[in-house]
From TrEMBL:
Residues 1-32 form the signal peptide. This is Hemicentin-1. The keyword Signal applies. The lineage of its organism: Eukaryota, Metazoa, Spiralia, Lophotrochozoa, Mollusca. It comes from Mytilus edulis. It comes from the Eukaryota.
Amino acid sequence: MSQDIREMRLFHSGTVTLLVLCIYIVPATVHGDVSSAWGEWDSWSACSVTCGYGSITKTGYWFNEEGVKTNETFVQHSGCYLDIKCPVDGNWTMWSPYSACSKPCGQGIRTRTRYCTNPRPLNGGNECMGAGSDQTNCKLDDCPPIPTNFDIETCKQPGKLWCKSKRMCVEASERCDRKVQCHDGSDESLCYKYGNSARGIYLPLTSMAVWISFILFRNLT
């Protein structure tokens, strides 16, 4: 003997909504006035997640002829949904390429960056661990020394360019000629735009002046 049992139940509790259609066959073995059969279902379990989509289960047990629950079980699975935004932990993007060396001569640095946007932390998720930037030393060339017995008075003459340190000067025509003359590299550093290549992008002085004028104009408008 067996029973064909059909159920359609709508469960709603708080933020959990569940529609279940149950169709199952319950076999029974009859021994005189006593039969073995499946017992009642347990209650549905809690949702397997704390947010979004998950699953729930309920279990039925087989009872023997003496009416004792056995280890034989029948488990039913169904979906569940909690209308709660799940936290999203932040993750780093890949490192950018290293920047150009920060100085045209002498000791400089190269920098690379990464961003906590892959994805961004959301809904209380964890921030990325670690630093968003990294630096390494670099040296493209040796800076030239201050000439022996250099006379600083010559820097007062027309056509001279003071080095940034004010300890020496060079010919003004030597600025931005792609050859370092100042002992601190300042005659070339003003013309040196740092990009992703090892030596950056060299800009003529006129181009640099146009670019600075454009930036000032944009900030004022």
